[in-house]
Amino acid sequence: STDADTQKNEEFTKEIEKLNNDLAELKDKYQRSLADRENVRRRLEKQVSDAKLYGIQGFCKDLLEVTDVFRKALESVTPEQLSEGSEQLRSLYDGVSMTETQLLAVFRRNGLSVMPLDSGAKFDTSWHEAVFEVPSDGKNEPGTIAHILRPAWKLHERCIRSAQVGVIKE
């Protein structure tokens, strides 16, 4: 009877070990599942947040073309033409200028802004598009910006239109 009891105890011990191992494995799977679920939740929250912030990106890109047209229109009139021109020309110029100012204010309220950029800045592929190269002027290092054709724009912190620049040859 003691051999039978010992054998039963060994079987119970093995069964308890197996159940404890199964429990540990299930607990590990459960914790991993919870962690995966939390990661998915965070990722979806970020996607929703980004969609709210950047959902207007395509619309903004289209409107940037309008700002280009305003800028070209304003730059096409010289100070001499304004001072010597007709009252209608000055009124038209002032109207285009005020419209551009108002559009830029709407952009700022919605997180769209122009990136400041100066000649001599280091070329950065994430914000700049090299359109042409120029020989070194001796003042600035190769790989720096020599001319700015079009400014870069960002929506919040994301570049939505790179600056078009001329770069000093390496």
What is the helix/strand order? HHHHEEEEEE
Mean pLDDT, nearest integer? 92
Radius of gyration: 33 Å
Number of strands: 6
InterPro entries: GrpE (IPR000740), GrpE_CC (IPR013805), GrpE_head (IPR009012)
Pfam family, one: GrpE
GO molecular function, one term: adenyl-nucleotide exchange factor activity
Protein name: GrpE protein homolog
Q: Any chance you could write out the topology, listing elements then pairs?
A:
Elements: H1 2-54, H2 57-75, H3 79-84, H4 87-109, E1 112-114, E2 128-134, E3 145-150, E4 153-155, E5 158-161, E6 163-168
Parallel strand pairs: 2-6
Antiparallel strand pairs: 1-4, 3-6, 4-5
Helix pairs in contact: 2-4
Organism: Hirondellea gigas
Family: Belongs to the GrpE family.
GO molecular function: adenyl-nucleotide exchange factor activity; protein homodimerization activity; protein-folding chaperone binding; unfolded protein binding
Structure write-up:
- Keywords: Chaperone, Coiled coil.
- With 170 residues, the protein is an alpha+beta fold.
- It folds into 3 domains: 1-73; 77-110; 112-169, Nucleotide Exchange Factor Grpe, Chain A, domain 2.
- Helices cover 59% and strands 17% of the residues.
- It has helices at 2-54, 57-75, 79-84, 87-109; strands at residues 112-114, 128-134, 145-150, 153-155, 158-161, 163-168.
- The strands form 2 sheets. It has a 3-stranded antiparallel sheet. Strands 2-6-3 form a 3-stranded mixed sheet, with no helix packed on it.
- The longest helix has 53 residues, at 2-54.
